[in-house]
Amino acid sequence: MTTAPVDGVTEIVDPADPRVDDYRELNSIAVRAEMEGDEFFMGEGYVPIDRMLDSGHRMRSVLLHPKRLKRFLPTMERPEMAGVPVYVAEQEVIAEIVGFNMYRCCLASAYRAPMPTVRELAESCRRIVVLEALNDDQNVGAIARAARAFEIDGIVISPTCNDPYQRRTVRVSMGEILHMPVARAAPEDWPAAIETLHESGFETWAMTPADDAVDLWDLEVPDKVAIVLGAEGHGLEAATMRATTHRVRIPISPVVDSLNVGHAAAVTFAAVGRPRGVRTTA
Amino acid sequence: MTTAPVDGVTEIVDPADPRVDDYRELNSIAVRAEMEGDEFFMGEGYVPIDRMLDSGHRMRSVLLHPKRLKRFLPTMERPEMAGVPVYVAEQEVIAEIVGFNMYRCCLASAYRAPMPTVRELAESCRRIVVLEALNDDQNVGAIARAARAFEIDGIVISPTCNDPYQRRTVRVSMGEILHMPVARAAPEDWPAAIETLHESGFETWAMTPADDAVDLWDLEVPDKVAIVLGAEGHGLEAATMRATTHRVRIPISPVVDSLNVGHAAAVTFAAVGRPRGVRTTA
């Protein structure tokens, strides 16, 4: 080891050590989904790990390259870290554990908090974003970051949407996904979950580039609104579109097909949250 | 070869064939920057290649996997493709040319159009985005796509900003970057290029998360405005900030540090372009 031993830190020398089983095959989305289930997830990087602790997710363990230890020490002193094992391992050992050559390893495993139901989420929130079948981890993470920035309270994901606690999603969200309640609709409740939102007093806005949808800037923002977004390219399913109260478009130039779904989300969140009042004609 | 010979298509069997020199070491940003200079750039995928032709960039050549040829035939029949060599090569040959195992190869090389000067751009545009030292190809590409969507006319890049014609940038922009004039400020003209914009009648808005900046929604949008964005994390240089006429912030929740720079760009573009007029109090 390149650093002196530190209290409460254990060196891992055998890549097969079961104490680091949480960290295996990190790049295989399918294997990870199976392994993690609804039990745990990965955080990566100093800031996201601090954000994990802030968010109240309970830690399982930490795995670091020895050179990462020094900067991690302040985090180790946080009360939430009491009793949480911190493992260090050399580059080659980490590579065998995670399945690829991971530089600057700074990983944490945390228990997933139980997800609220769609109804529970709807009863506790005023602004919701609904993601149908989004399959790009970066988009989901970036949308979560923008959602927090514009005071969207919660996320509902469709049964086939990407896992919002995927490693890269958590990282791209700058850890913000961990601070939002997420409800996942069951396959038999999709798109019926949209109706559950209506029962809790929500308007639901299906975002679409269709010409005949209502202009985002023309809509009054109700007390409770859910912004419903589909995957880029494919867009929202017809049944989901029909289940919503409004079809809403962001006015864009006719020379461009559509916006990136993350950009569409951010613009809509910003428009919903913008200050209201009497404006003079420009 | 897996397909029958097609008129005007040449098979490449020797990876060292100089006719495909444009396609070498595709994943090395440094090598590519040196090779391409201001002479040529890469397009990738059917739609971006069609967008390249639409944009008036003159083609040098095309390189395809044989299986890609059939869907490419309609593009080959476009008048802009007259005399442009189309090469096909098997998977292993392509891998040796480009330097990695590239599946579904569908690449085109095109001449770079001469860039306008900052002054020429300023005289021909009303809405400009200025990018200082952005170093993420995806962000630059996504910003170009959003810029076109919200009718931003042109892009000014600082001397150290990413090349806007990088392969991945062109792809992420959905080819939209090719439809916008881009001016690159010379090192000795930075941040003086901001002053050039003022001389052409522009207000310049330095986007910043600083609390004491003006709220985006409170600003009247002038006839000519340039939106100035810095790299994520670092933000704009102090000298650049001082050179601008306004410091502008997107109001976001205090619990979040900042927005992704692409999201900040899209929200600002949308706010600048939104319809104006008398609004009633909500």
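The interface with chain B takes residues 142, 145-146, 148-151, 174, 176, 179, 215, 217-218, 220-221, 250-253, 255-260, 262-263, 266-267, 270-271, 273-282 of chain A (CB under 8 Å).
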